[in-house]
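Reply to dn_fold:

You asked what the input looked like. This is it:
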Amino acid sequence: MGKNILVTGGAGFMGAWLVDELLTRGHTVTSIDDLSGGYMRNVNKECNFVRGDLRDTALVNKVMKGIDIVYHLAAYAAEGQSVFSPIAINDININPMNNLLVAAINNGVGRFVFTSSMAVYGNQKAPFSEDMPRLPEDPYGAGKAYCENMLEIFQAAYGLDYTIIRPHNVYGPKQNIADPFRNVLGIWINRLMSNRHPIIYGSGEQVRAFSYIEESTKAIANAGFFEKAVNQIINVGSPEKVTINDACSKVLRIMASEHRPEHVAPRPQEVALAYSTTEKSERLLDYKNSHSLEEGISEMVLWAKEMGPQEPTYKLPLEITRSAPEVWVRKTM
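and this is what came back:
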């Protein structure tokens, strides 16, 4: 039977994909977004869209009425920037979680699915597995760790079932390529479309596992319905590891660009080796990785070229400029 579902951040990249998937499965979806990082072009016309700020307690209580399942994806997911904008980023990420949890309990919500982040692992030995402690290295990861802990507390106190998803490096069509602080593949693609060289922080030997949005979305959607995922923490993402240098080379090759990357100073607190295990997501959420990185980038490039180059938008100002990347301070992305 169809459920009444609330998706936060439904005009954003991952949220928009999730809304589409849930509607396809026959559910009734309410999507809420303040459009600070999302776009109306991403909003599915079949959902009940509410434009609003999740820090508005009254609004959160209103949209929560009659909801069976909450998928909380709304966040300002700029891990690197959080070292320089900790007040704003944690205000955006923590206060909404508190409002949503209180409203969920008071309205009898049955399941709460939260997209956390691989950032909660910090600088532990990769691959990160779900049984590792939370040891974040930056304010963004610390905020996500707080939200995870709140879910565990509310489950013990009130019986609110949850699933915590820890995605890593999700990319693909509908991503905000105008954001100069996050989503490195999108930043490179946008710069190349604007005839600018890609920028790499540090040596480029950092290792990541980039995850195509389609596979991640299906697993996240399953998290609200699979009983085997109840009260579990689950990594969701690709098993295909790659260095930042190699990822950049793939983008340059796919875009047939003669540009070469410019290496600049490393970002403070950036973890060098950051990728996760995949076994639990495959077992509990039926995650399947069907796009290679080259296939996924090719799909994203086709979409980005239809959009055309985007003017970078510096929506969240730096609160600290000391040691910040020069291109951020000068807004030359």
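The two ends are 48 Å apart (CA to CA).
Hope that clears it up.
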